[in-house]
Design a protein that fits this description.
By secondary structure, this protein is α/β, with parallel strands linked by helices. It has 32 helices and 38 strands.
Length: about 1000
């Protein structure tokens, strides 16, 4: 039996000592049988995790990490099988603390004699009243807490969740008082304003008190994750020495068990003065003196790296965090009685900002459990939502997948998820199949079809950046695989295309934030073209702490580089990949270059001949970590020793072993001519099963791989070169035509001729450049001599030229008065009889509006760009009322005109023209109703506006920015007409 379970690759040895059997009060036969069954299950999981391994002995004292290569998901699988086999419920701390199968065996014996700790399924009894006002005027997080402690002192804010009933509840007043004691203790230890304080604590009350205690003392909190097991404390602290040194940490707040290792850090980081516990801080607390804290002061440092090499600490101010929290609250419409249920770690931005600080601002209840509680029993998360009537929760994709794989139907009996309003899925690559299967599996338990919300964000933008509209549910864009891989164009696939790529729609940027997609040359690409995602907004970091090189790479002028590849379709962001080689595994970032360098330093391996990459694993919803290392070792024992050494190093550096270690022959790892590891190419030959093949066959495959890769690169290069040539040609042609057209618009005697000149010029330019221009609905134009008010959307500075070519007779453009200040624009616009309108002088603006109305009654048709401004972001903005008041007052018909395609050809803020197609749609005339009084004037104008906007919106093919205010860019970034 053991041979079958172990696949012939793992052997059991000694089971249980006589002394241990006596200690556990079991007879010899029963204890031996239990040990044998448990070890068999461990062998089974180990064989499934690493089927490629050679014969290796497993004992009760084998290390789960170093010897067996158990990662967090492997531990979960082993614990689930053990609980089912022995009919016990193991404490959640066993997940983290168990070092060997013997520890698991002891836990089984202890659980047999313990009281049943089944997850409670009754509803929580906490009643939360709706808060009054929300502190939108607060400028710092400390002001937010002070406001709630004053206005809502006894309101429950945090509930520490437990299986056995309602856990500890922390009110706003309680949080304030606990934080003040920590702050006073820090000040008693001479903490100075602006100094960094490292927080290495598990989820619990001490963490919340410490974070705000540091802020209130004037310090800067630096959260780092606590060690998973006591045996890892020393390695854990050593690994984080780089972070402590980079932020010049003055104090480390941690658990008592880690204090004795504090000297290790103090010896390596000269700025670190003390290692203390929360109890020690509160015991020495004296008089607390509140320092002055401003909106632009640093609120905390979020480290995105630092295991080895150069750490990257994202600097986030109070203003950054509050802007992000408020924008996210608007995007998901946070309600007064929302309850947020979370297991997310508090050292991660999604758990710290998205879960805790966001709910702090909106005075919502946060029901929180430790990450270990979720990982050991994923059903705890769902039952916590059931019991607390949770409305909001968030998690990386792997968590939803874990629920699908690890929760039995019998653990769901009576579960009610109908209160769950939004399940935000983000922080790592989102799997469309996971979202669909989760909705199908838990739909019968009340999980709504539109509850799942895929979102996008990153630490450099605090946490959140783009959200889809509420009620829309997950939207998947199916695109043609070959076209996308070869050209970067996201062409929609047919329904029966079984090879289509599924791209998740992550919505649009939040209020005040912007996203753009650029090519390698830094130029913004058209819609449905893959490129590099850049962003900007009030949540964006100012850079990385004391890391000028990384900060310089982050910024491109006023834009920030996300490191992600994406495309935009219909204004929505679709993330397609990463330019940075970060591997996201179970929610944790792993940086291949750092790990490769460390592995290459092991005896028997060589630096530069190691490749580390991630492989998407649909079965787990996260990425598998693969290490390919060249070695001359051939003996099985030597190779097994190398694998164990790599596993041990991985545990020390990244907190867990890789999913697979491939020991390859020399010259197997592909590199560039300059010696850099080609991770994508190595991933490809790994997936093709070519690693370790005979040299001749391998070289042949490598050659084919190189030729295959050269094709798409050549096509992309030619495409980029073609874009540059097209733009240069367009600029040259326009430079030649513009002076001629200017002279014609000024010199021609007839208005009809002057109107026709730019129209003919634009048609000639579009034909020479191969830009098709089609006009539909000319039959809807009023008869010649019948004045009307024309209204158009506005996407680009090309729109005026397009309209002169599309409309067969002159109309009067309304243009900003500032254009009169330059004779180059004033003269031709006057010759076209444009109406100059003042935008800043209110009185003059009223006079100008009256003049336009008089001219309309005299037979002159005005054209309004009703949005009043143009932006680079796709979408129809709100319409201003001027055009509709004019039409209603004069009783003139209105003609809707929709322009499509110009935004992609020439975006706002750029003079780089691209190829594309232009369509002009002239809608049917809309007649105003007769007026019965001055009050009816406004009412009729509003009706006209709504009708015209509905018509243009239905034709423009862009999202409605009026219904989705989070899409409207910052007015400071807009360019008025």
């Amino acid at each position: 039996m053991l041979h079958l379970l172990g696949q012939g690759k793992f052997r059991r040895q000694r089971s249980m000592s006589v002394r241990e059997r006596r200690e556990n009060g079991t007879d010899t036969g029963q204890a031996a049988e239990t040990a044998a069954r448990l070890l068999a299950m461990v062998c089974e999981v180990a064989a499934e995790l690493h089927p490629q391994r050679t014969d290796s002995a497993i004992t009760l004292d084998s290390s789960l990490d170093r010897d067996l290569g158990f990662d967090s998901l492997g531990r979960v699988e082993a614990l689930v099988r053990i609980e089912r086999a022995f009919g016990v419920s193991l404490p959640e701390n066993v997940f983290a603390s168990a070092e060997t199968p013997r520890d698991l065996l002891r836990a089984v014996f202890a659980a047999r004699g313990a009281e049943d700790t089944a997850i409670r399924r009754d509803r929580a009894e906490i009643v939360i009243e709706a808060p009054g006002e929300i502190p939108f005027g607060a400028e710092t997080l400390v002001e937010v807490l002070e406001w709630h402690a004053r206005v809502n002192p006894d309101r429950p804010h945090i509930q520490l969740y437990g299986d056995d009933g309602l856990g500890e509840v922390i009110t706003f007043c309680g949080l304030m008082e606990g934080a003040e004691k920590v702050a006073a203790g820090l000040q008693a230890g001479d903490l100075r304003a602006g100094q960094s304080v490292i927080i290495m604590l598990p989820t619990g009350g001490d963490y919340f008190f410490s974070f705000f205690g540091v802020l209130m003392a004037g310090g800067v909190p630096v959260p780092i994750y606590p060690p998973g097991r006591p045996s890892q404390i020393e390695e854990h602290l050593r690994r984080h020495a780089g972070i402590v040194a980079n932020c010049r940490g003055a104090v480390l707040i941690t658990v008592p068990e880690a204090k004795r290792f504090g000297g290790l850090l103090r010896s390596q980081v000269e700025t670190l003065d003390g290692v203390v516990t929360v109890d020690e801080l509160t015991a020495r607390a004296g008089l607390f003196v509140a320092p002055k804290i401003g909106a632009n002061d640093v609120a905390f440092l979020q480290y995105t790296s630092g295991s080895t090499g150069s750490p990257k600490g994202v600097v986030l101010t109070h203003a950054n965090l509050l802007a992000n929290i408020r924008a996210m609250g608007e995007a998901i419409e946070v309600k007064p009685r929302d309850v947020f249920v979370s297991w997310l770690p508090l050292y991660h931005d999604m758990g710290l900002i998205g879960a805790w600080l966001g709910n702090l601002h909106y005075a919502n209840l946060l029901v929180i459990m430790s990450p270990l509680a979720f990982l050991s029993k994923p059903e705890r998360w769902l039952w916590a939502i059931h019991r607390a009537r949770g409305t909001l929760s968030a998690a990386p994709n792997f968590a939803f997948e874990l629920c699908l794989r690890r929760i039995d139907d019998n653990a769901l009996e009576g579960l009610d998820l109908s209160s769950w309003r939004l399940a935000l899925n983000g922080a790592e690559a989102i799997n469309p199949e996971t979202m669909q299967r989760f909705a199908e599996r838990f739909g019968p338990y009340g999980f709504g079809a539109n509850t799942m919300m895929p979102v996008y964000g990153l630490a450099e933008c605090s946490v959140g950046l783009s959200f889809p509209p509420l009620g829309k549910g997950p939207v998947i864009d199916r695109i043609q695989r070959d076209v996308f891989m070869k050209t970067g164009r996201a062409v929609e696939a047919l329904e029966d295309d079984t090879r289509a790529l599924a791209m998740v729609n992550c919505g649009r940027p939040m209020t005040g934030h912007q996203i753009r997609i650029i090519d390698d040359a830094g130029r913004e690409v058209q819609e449905r073209r893959e490129g590099h995602l850049q962003f900007r907004g009030p949540s964006a970091t100012s850079g990385y702490l004391r890391n000028p090189r990384a900060t310089a790479e982050l910024f491109a002028g006023e834009w920030l580089n996300s490191g992600d590849l994406a495309y935009i379709a219909g204004g929505d962001v679709h993330i397609s990949g990463r330019t940075k080689d970060i591997i996201i595994r179970a929610g944790r970032n792993i940086y291949p270059a750092e790990f490769e360098d460390a592995v290459g330093g092991l005896e028997g391996l060589q630096k530069g001949n190691v490749a580390v990459f991630g492989i998407n694993d649909p079965a787990t919803g996260t990425e598998r970590l693969v290490v390919v290392a060249e070695t001359r070792k051939r003996k099985p024992d030597d190779r097994e020793a190398l694998r164990q050494a790599i596993n041990g190093l991985a545990v020390d550096l990244i907190g867990g072993p890789p999913d697979e270690v491939v020991l390859a022959p020399l010259r197997s790892v592909l590199k560039t001519s300059s010696g850099k590891v080609r991770r994508a190419a190595n991933r490809d030959i790994y997936e093709r099963g070519l690693i370790g093949k005979p040299p001749s066959a391998l070289w042949w495959q490598i050659t084919r791989l190189g030729l295959t890769a050269a094709g798409p690169q050549l096509r992309r290069g030619l495409s980029r070169a073609g874009g540059v040539l097209f733009a240069a040609s367009a600029t040259g042609l326009f430079a030649v035509l513009a002076p001629v057209l200017w002279v014609l618009m000024v010199a021609l005697p007839s208005l009809a001729w002057r109107w026709a000149a730019p129209g003919y010029g634009f048609r000639l330019l579009s034909r020479l450049l191969g830009i098709p221009v089609s006009v539909h609905g000319l039959e809807n134009l009023p008869q010649a001599g019948s004045p009307a008010v024309f209204v158009s959307n506005h996407s680009s500075y090309l729109d005026s030229w397009v309209l002169t070519s599309a409309l067969p007779r002159p109309i009067r453009f309304l243009v900003k008065a500032e254009l009169q200040d330059n004779w180059m624009t004033r003269i031709p616009l006057r010759r076209l009889e444009a109406e100059f309108v003042e935008r800043f002088d209110y009185g003059q603006g009223i006079d100008d509006a009256r003049r336009v109305t008089r001219n309309l009654r005299d037979g002159h048709s005005p054209l309004f760009f009703a949005e009043g401004t143009l932006t680079r972001i796709p979408g129809l903005q709100s319409f201003q009322m001027g055009a509709f008041m004019t039409a209603a007052e004069a009783g003139a018909p209105m003609v809707p005109i929709t322009i499509r395609g110009t935004r992609s050809i020439l975006r706002d803020g750029s003079w780089f023209l691209r190829s594309g197609t232009i369509t002009v749609i002239i809608g049917k005339t809309i007649e105003p109703a007769p007026l019965t009084g001055q009050e009816a004037l406004w009412t009729e104008a509003v009706k006209l506006r709504d009708k015209m906007r509905r018509e243009i919106l239905s034709q423009c093919g862009e999202p409605d920015l009026e219904k989705e205010p989070s899409l409207i860019p910052d007015l400071k970034q807009q360019r008025p007409i």
